[in-house]
Amino acid sequence: MRVRVLSVFLAVAIVFGSILLPSCGGGERAKESAGGTLIVFHAGSLSVPFKRISRIFMEENPGVAVRLESAGSRSCARKISDLGRKCDVMASADYTVIDALLIPDHASWNIKFASNEMSIVYTEHSKRHGEIDAGNWHEVLLDRGVVFGRSDPDADPCGYRAVLTMKLAGKYYGESGLAARLLEKDNRFIRPKETDLLALLETGTIDYIFLYRSVAQQHGLEFLILPDEINLKRPEFADDYGTVSVEISGKKPGEKIMKRGDPMVYGITIPSNSPSRELARKFVDFILDPAGGMKVMKEAGQPSMVPSPSGTYRAIPDRLKKYARPAA
Questions:
Q1: Residue 256 — φ and ψ, nearest 5°?
Q2: CATH 3.40.50.2000: does it fit domain 37-115+265-326?
Q3: 148-151 and 64-71 as β-strands: parallel, antiparallel, unpaired?
Q4: Per-residue pLDDT at 32
Q5: Cα separation of 191 and 121, whole Å?
Q6: Which of 47, 85, 198, 252 is in Cβ range 3.0-4.6 Å of 79 for a Cys bridge?
Q7: For residue 189, how many other CB atoms are within 10 A of its CB?
Q8: Which residues have C-beta within 8 Å of that of residue 30, sequence separation ≥ 6?
Q9: Candidates 3.40.50.1240, 3.40.50.920, 3.90.550.10, 3.40.190.10; correct CATH number of 118-260?
Q10: How far is residue 178 from each of residues 84, 128, 139, 201, measured CA to CA in Å?
């Protein structure tokens, strides 16, 4: 009798379980399809606005987790191209990093989306901060009692843009050898990305940084506005910026390429190895939306350049084509 009762009990349990399991499984699948994880590699100078943008996006898309990973833009690209790291969205402080290191093998398109400018950043504790101006900043930085930092040109666009700014300054101020003297000084304070230098500045280890104006604004730091002829901000000075160049690492180990000066333009793409392509497109759409992410970018001191011409326009997903236009 006990065996029969037990058998009946087990049969009921199995039937009941068979009813519940599909329901539970369907619930889990529904939950997964409504959410997901996004892996985002981005330039250090995008850290502040991208944190805000991601927070808003996650609030509007419950169940979605955005994982941000900042580094120098060239380092971000090499994580994808050299290390094979999975990535859903890659945002570079220089759109040409995507063109040079990711397209065509690791990405197929590139959208230009924001601008910036070089500046000299300091605090109220920096030596000679009360006298530095647009006419004498290079003299202040060359003072033996003053220490300045910059980022690594091979890892970070801000690093090679600092070098380009120095070279343009030599021409602008008519001082032969100025860039060489600046480049020989304080090399022990070169770091992988520009934001790595902020702690050194805030602790007084260094007095000044070659840094993007937006980062200075975002962190409430003092900054010196440089002449447009040398700050890499103005498209109308593109020809003048292009008269200087810097040697940086290429795609292959040991390879060197020449990077010419040009106006600052940020770029964004979805790498070919993206694990969540549809969600990535939705996130990029939100970033580039004038009422969404680009509003945050503008508030963070990084003006929109959307829509901009793209040489990869045909490869851009239809959902995102509105943020670009065919290159002439």
A1: -120, 140
A2: no
A3: unpaired
A4: 35
A5: 15
A6: 85
A7: 17
A8: none
A9: 3.40.190.10
A10: 41, 20, 9, 24
14-38: per-residue pLDDT in tens?
333 433 333 333 333 333 335 799 9
Residues of the chain within CATH 3.40.190.10 domain(s) are: 37-115+265-326, 118-260
Burial of 168 (0-12, 13-18, 19+ CB in 10 A): buried
Contacts of 164 (CB under 8 A, 6+ apart): 232, 241, 244, 245, 246, 259, 261
Evaluate if residue 91 carries a pLDDT over 50: yes
How far apart are the C-alpha atoms of 225 and 156, rounded to whole Å?
21
